Amino acid sequence: MINLVLFGPPGAGKGTQSEKLIERFHLVHLSTGDILRSEVANRTPLGLEAKKLMDQGLLVPDEVVIGMIESKLDGNPAAKGFIFDGFPRTEAQARALDGLLSRKGTSITLMLALEVTDDELMSRLLKRGKESGRADDQDETVIRKRISEYASKTAPVRDYYAAQGKYTGVNGIGSIDSIFNELCGAVEASMAAR
Ligand code: AMP
Question: How sure is the predictor about 194, in pLDDT bands with cuts at 50, 70 and 90?
């Protein structure tokens, strides 16, 4: 199995690159942001609770997102591998994910981190907000909160994977195809080294 963590701040291009990686490596896409937005759209109790936090740019509790990932892993027994997009976002989530994967006899292959400056993130997110209507991309204060949540709670997840020798950083500014080629090169090198 190939299991990739696609890592980076909001607006780094995780969603765009995930779509291309899924196609190339035949992976199942698990985005906690997408799952949460669908819960919000369906007005489920979980969605209604999560919306209050998402609207403020705050993280949803670890146990909620870990439970969502667990049920998606169990619901895809025939998958050739997974791409985790927007998850794990805390060290507790990363540890839980290692536990869930080891129960399935597998593990994370590689963490691919898209690196983008804060100024670039702000302009990309405001543009996405205008085009998509996504509420948390339309308000500068909420965007700043999301970037600061990333810096304080999520950036340490990089060290967690670096300690396992699984971290690869890629410059997230450039053309979609050149960034994709770099990501593919990293995945192929790690598959060849196995
Ligand atoms: P995203 O689409 O990944 O930027 O996520 C949108 C929002 O959903 C975030 O600002 C958080 O409020 C929430 N969220 C998504 N994934 C997670 C996660 N792994 N842990 C906690 N909150 C999350």
Answer: confident
